[in-house]
Amino acid sequence: MRELTYNAEGLIPAIAQDAETREVLMLAWMDAEALRRTLTTGKATYWSRSRKEYWVKGETSGHHQRVVSVAADCDGDTILLTVEQTGAACHTGNHTCFFTELTAGDVA
Amino acid sequence: MRELTYNAEGLIPAIAQDAETREVLMLAWMDAEALRRTLTTGKATYWSRSRKEYWVKGETSGHHQRVVSVAADCDGDTILLTVEQTGAACHTGNHTCFFTELTAGDVA
Q1: Is a pLDDT exceeding 70 seen at residue A1?
Q2: Quick one: average pLDDT of A88-98?
Q3: Which residues form the Phosphoribosyl-AMP cyclohydrolase domain (chains A, B) (predicted)?
Q4: Measured between beta carbons, which residues in chain A are less than 8 angstroms from residue B45?
Q5: Which residues of B touch A35 (CB under 8 A)?
Q6: Which sequence spans correspond to the domains of chain A?
Q7: Cβ–Cβ under 8 Å, residues B45 and B65
Q8: Which CATH superfamily is domain A12-100 in?
Q9: Which residue in B has a C-alpha nearest to residue A3's C-alpha?
Q10: Pair B79, B12: CB distance under 8 Å
C-alpha cells in the first residue's frame, strides 16, 4: 500500500466528492482501520472524533455513501473519496456541508 | 464573520476545487491571517506547516489560484475554495494532487 501519513492522533482527513454532481460534500477523518473498512466494504466509514467510534456514513440517517473510488494525494496525507451519495450528505439536510459563503466583508 | 473552528495549531484545512473541471485539486492549511489574505486579495494563500510561513500559491511556480468563491462547512472547521487554477496544482506536474488510486488490495 502507498505510504500514508497520519497526524498525531493517528487520523487523516478524507474529502468526499459526489461522483455525479462533482460537488465537494464534506470532510471527515479516518484512521487506518476506517480506511480499511471503507476500501473493503465500499461504504464510506469515518472515525468520529466527538463520539470516538467508527461511523458508517448513513448508518442512522440512511444517507449512505457508496464508494466509487479512493485516492491519496501526492504526499499521502489526505484522502479523496468519490461517492454515490444517497440523500443529503449534511446533517442539516443540505446536499453538501459547504453552504456558508465567506466574503472579504467577513474579515474586514 | 461566521465562527470558524481552528485546530490546536490555529489551523483549518482548506480544500481547493477547480471551478471549471470541478476536480478536487489539493488540501492545504490556513490560519486566520491566511484566510484573511485569501479573501481580501483573491489569491489562495496558505500556511506552510513545513516552512512555517505564508505561501501564496503559485508565487514561485507561477501556478496561481484565483479565488472564485470561499465557503465554510456546517460546523465551521473546514474551508472550500473554488479556484481558477493556472497550470498544475500539484508540484509533481499533475493537475490535481489526488492521482494515486487506492484499492481494497492495498489493505488486504
Answers
A1: no
A2: 96
A3: 26-99
A4: none
A5: 102, 107
A6: 12-100
A7: no
A8: Phosphoribosyl-AMP cyclohydrolase (3.10.20.810)
A9: B106
A10: yes
